[in-house]
User: Which sequence fits this backbone?
């Protein structure tokens, strides 16, 4: 269809920098512009009509308009439009997706000290992430299965996972680990040590 515009979707962690690139194959020196999701012009060639100084020009030539957006927040998410003033005009969009790591990870243990043979309840909560976090449990290095509930609050998800654990004397001093699986964060985990009293 003679479409000359190329762009890619962008996934970025909240607070980081997103880079949007509008590229032109077979450039004929037509004007390139970039619009935000409300269709306001961010850049027209190398001029920025939009007053938001978080947008900065990274590269401008007749074959590319590349713009960075610093300190990305959830409200920046959406479709951005690359336009080329050919006849007829061409337009494609790129989608910015914003990831938010969980704010906090807390293990709550029903009893500080358990008696051998007793079943205890542990809850691990990952606050306010996007997308929803997957919570994994380990006792020492053995993976266990918990039961997760997800609460959505506006655009954020809080996940609580409940683990029921029958403890034996061999569990005394063993760490129970709650680990987060989330695209915005690596190696986020917290742990509590079991205390088991023998009858």
Assistant:
């Amino acid at each position: 269809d003679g479409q000359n515009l190329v762009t890619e979707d962008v996934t970025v962690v909240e607070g980081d920098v997103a880079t949007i690139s509008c590229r032109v194959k077979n450039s004929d020196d037509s004007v390139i512009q970039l619009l935000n999701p409300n269709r306001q012009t961010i850049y027209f060639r190398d001029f920025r009509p939009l007053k938001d100084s978080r947008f900065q020009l990274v590269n401008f030539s007749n074959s590319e308009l590349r713009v960075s957006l610093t300190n990305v927040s959830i409200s920046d998410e959406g479709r951005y439009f690359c336009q080329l003033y050919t006849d007829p005009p061409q337009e494609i969009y790129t989608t910015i997706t914003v990831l938010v790591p969980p704010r906090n990870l807390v293990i709550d243990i029903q009893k500080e000290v358990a008696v051998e043979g007793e079943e205890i309840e542990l809850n691990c909560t990952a606050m306010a992430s996007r997308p929803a976090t997957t919570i994994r449990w380990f006792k020492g290095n053995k993976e266990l299965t918990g039961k997760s509930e997800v609460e959505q609050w506006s655009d954020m998800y809080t996940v609580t996972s409940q683990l029921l654990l029958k403890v034996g004397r061999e569990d005394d001093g063993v760490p129970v680990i709650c680990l987060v699986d989330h695209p915005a964060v690596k190696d986020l985990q917290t742990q509590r040590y079991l205390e088991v009293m023998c009858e």
In short: The longest strand covers residues 119-129. The CA atoms of residues 15 and 60 lie 24 Å apart.
